[in-house]
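Tip: read the tokens left to right.
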């Protein structure tokens, strides 16, 4: 079941769902709009192989802080990780589907399907993929729409993963070879 604006407001009022800060225009008809948080990490093209069994190489990423004046330019085919301004906390019986607001999609920007797991808490990290021409974005703009779905029952194992309570843009974290049964 997809939550309506009334359901979302009720979940927030009851303290089951948290969105901080909560603006007047955050809650929409069937979801919430979240804002750009001001942190970004560009995924740089290189010939270096990103081995998912080893530590992530920071040289393959470029971090940039941006604000409501200077902004952030997303170039064609560029892949950028951005965070939301809002910190969200979901109960064990809600999950969220994230999609780019249509205004930004109409500029050619794209974001891959992203799920917020039941029990997750933190700022969201979203990948943006550049379209046909450069697009300038600003901290505080509503860019992401989240649709919440009520699960048929609370999950047995709520999200407690490595990105729990993240703030800013957190780079990918992989298990080491030893943890997954290989040799360290």
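Filled-in amino acids:
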């Amino acid at each position: 079941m997809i939550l309506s604006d009334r359901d979302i407001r009720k979940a927030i009022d009851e303290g089951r769902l948290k969105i901080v800060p909560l603006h007047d225009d955050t809650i929409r008809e069937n979801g919430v709009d979240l804002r750009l948080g001001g942190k970004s990490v560009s995924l740089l093209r290189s010939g270096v192989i990103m081995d998912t069994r080893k530590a992530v190489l920071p040289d393959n990423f470029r971090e940039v802080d941006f604000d409501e004046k200077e902004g952030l330019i997303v170039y064609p085919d560029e892949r950028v990780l951005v965070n939301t301004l809002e910190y969200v906390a979901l109960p064990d019986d809600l999950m969220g589907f994230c999609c780019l607001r249509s205004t930004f999609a109409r500029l050619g920007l794209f974001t891959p399907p992203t799920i917020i797991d039941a029990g997750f808490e933190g700022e969201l990290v979203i990948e943006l993929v550049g379209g046909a021409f450069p697009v300038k974005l600003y901290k505080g703009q509503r860019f992401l729409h989240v649709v919440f779905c009520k699960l048929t029952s609370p999950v047995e194992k709520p999200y407690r993963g490595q990105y729990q309570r993240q703030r800013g843009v957190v780079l990918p974290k992989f298990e080491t070879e030893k943890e997954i049964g290989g040799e360290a």
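The longest helix spans residues 5-13. The two ends are 45 Å apart (CA to CA).
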